[in-house]
Amino acid sequence: MTLNNVWIITDNQNAVGELCGGGRQLGAQVSVVLFGDQNQAKEAIASGADKVFLFEQPENSVMIEAYSKSIAELLRTEKADLAMVYSSIRGKLMAGRIAAQLATSALAISELKVEDGRIITRRMVYGGAAMRTEKTLSETVVVTVGTGVFEAGPKDETRQGTVTAVNPNVASDGIRVLETRPKQGEVVNLSAAKRVVGVGRGFSAKEDLKMAEELAALIGAEMGCSRPIAEGEKWMSKERYIGVSGVFLKADIYVSLGVSGQIQHMVGANPSKTLVAINKDKNAPVFKQADIGLVGDIYHVLPQIIAKLKAQK
Amino acid sequence: MRVISCCKAVPEEQDIVVAKDRQISFEKAEWKFGQYDLNAVEAGKQLVEAAGGQLSGLCAGGNILDNSKMKKDILSRGLDDLYLVIDESLEQADTYQSARVLEAAIKKIGDFDLVLCGAGSSDLYAQQVGNQLGELLGIPVVNAVNRIMPQGDKVIVERALENEIQVLEITLPAVLSVTSEINVPRIPGMKDIIAANKKPVTKFTLSEIEVTNSLPSSTVLSTLAPEQAERRLTILEGESEDIVDAFVKLLRAELK
Ligand SMILES: Cc1cc2nc3c(=O)[nH]c(=O)nc-3n(C[C@H](O)[C@H](O)[C@H](O)COP(=O)(O)OP(=O)(O)OC[C@H]3O[C@@H](n4cnc5c(N)ncnc54)[C@H](O)[C@@H]3O)c2cc1C
């Protein structure tokens, strides 16, 4: 049994395919809220949407999140059973605000299915130490969904659907956008890397990461890190931190250097086939989940390892 | 500026015990405050240091909040005073229920300019309580805040989106959830720990803040540890040439 009315809300057009794919599996009717143009609406219909609600880009000083109230109103009048919001930062804020309007929670889910007309969700809890399965009780269930949860179906350019332009009178909500500037991001896809070398706070200075980079170059690996290296130290970009709130690896081999191996990190490392760890503390949790480990100081053993790998090239 | 930083008491996730049937137990777990809530306390402290004012802590949770070590811990991190809403049922609260309770407590506390939340709680990390709280209070609300600059009755904030930085002007009062990058929380010194003993603590029950019951959004069917991959656990120990040699051999074999 499927749901009657599934809604999708996304500020990122790249998410439309997967979310519509999921929507088609779960619901009889799929409605999509977009903040873009007619072409994007067409793409949503080809991907499985029956109805598209095209919210006009608000004027520059207004955030799209200001539409949250109007969207909640729409979900209520259209009797949505499920609202799946793309889990971008703006999406999360919208999801929380919309859910509050609808007197319910917003769940960040990694799986969702319908059983006996009820929505069953799964999400990671306790830093990835457990998966929680829940049966939802709300009239309209609000969830945030990232990429990789659903599969996009084939696009069908002949599919028919309706496009409704919505131009609500938004109040600025007391927030004015003064400026938007690009962030110097980095394009890396660590989850596609076959070999990864990951660094943790065992490194005491940014220059020292050169050792890790040298090892990575020798074995043809991408560089990754723990969250504190990206966020606290800001030595590497956030696209490179591995773990429950970062990247999930699918590598053949992951070599961690000076990473303690706390659950939040290991959850992202675990899908890798082989785990290798170097840490100077033999009781570090990383050794409980390693295939190969070396208890030693990276500052002593890494130069030797690099020299040996070079010599045998 | 009157700032309220929200914090959640959570079990230490490293102390989780997984049973054979993959059930998890917190019986042996220490309790602490969420790692990322400390960023909200530190951000509040920095604002009050720069612009003057008062920083309060607000926690909603079970009886663990009444533990003197817990209270002292959070007070020693720069709070002027602490408000606790204590009820065992709050241990199971979902994001909407938590936001409702915090909303009622904040109304009870009275005037404020800014409510700060962390990036997400250390246990469930739904990242939604701040967003929902702002909406319930009907005031400006923003997540992923990376920088806060006071400016009269407004604040200018930087918000880190995926590929861009938004600079926002926000009318107070407002609710902001800060990132874990916004600052490095200071480590309390001996003086802070001693001073924490003298700071006022106000305890509320649910009925004192007059929060009406809201139904849970879901029922939990199960909470289970994932299947663990078997690992070989070949751990070598030492830094001698022989040991490193053996390690490199093992590593090379994996790289074939
Ligand atoms: C909600 C939440 C989500 C989180 N999400 C993530 C996530 O997605 N990814 C993530 O990584 N973390 C995450 N964390 C943080 C996580 O809990 C840990 O704090 C973090 O992974 C620790 O990073 P680390 O191993 O680099 O540092 P530490 O834990 O400080 O470990 C450093 C290690 O280096 C070793 N060491 C020190 N010097 C040397 C040396 N000279 N040679 C060899 N070894 C040395 C030490 O023995 C120690 O084991 C999250 C936390 C929370 C609360």
Describe the fold and architecture:
- The complex is a heterodimer of chains A (313) and B (256).
- With 313 residues, chain A is an alpha/beta fold.
- Chain A has two domains: 3-166, HUPs (Rossmann fold, 3-Layer(aba) Sandwich); 190-312, Rossmann fold (3-Layer(aba) Sandwich), CATH 3.40.50.
- Helix content of chain A is 26%, strand content 29%.
- Chain A has a seven-stranded parallel beta sheet with strand order 5-9-4-1-2-3-10. A five-stranded parallel beta sheet of chain A has the order 13-12-14-15-16. In chain A, strands 6-7-8 form a three-stranded antiparallel beta sheet, with no helix packed on it.
- The termini of chain A are far apart.
- The mean pLDDT of chain A is 95.
- Chain B is of the alpha/beta class and 256 residues long.
- Chain B has a single domain (2-218), classed as 3-Layer(aba) Sandwich (Rossmann fold).
- Chain B has helices at 37-51, 68-75, 95-109, 129-137, 190-196, 241-255; strands spanning 2-7, 9-11, 17-18, 24-25, 31-33, 54-61, 81-86, 114-117, 141-151, 154-160, 164-171, 174-178, 201-204, 218-224, 234-237.
- The longest helix of chain B is centred in the N-terminal third of the chain and has 15 residues, at 37-51.
- Chain B is globular.
- Chains A and B meet through helix 4, strand 5, strand 7, strand 8 and strand 11 of A and helix 3, helix 4, strand 9, strand 10 and strand 11 of B.
- Bound molecules: flavin-adenine dinucleotide.
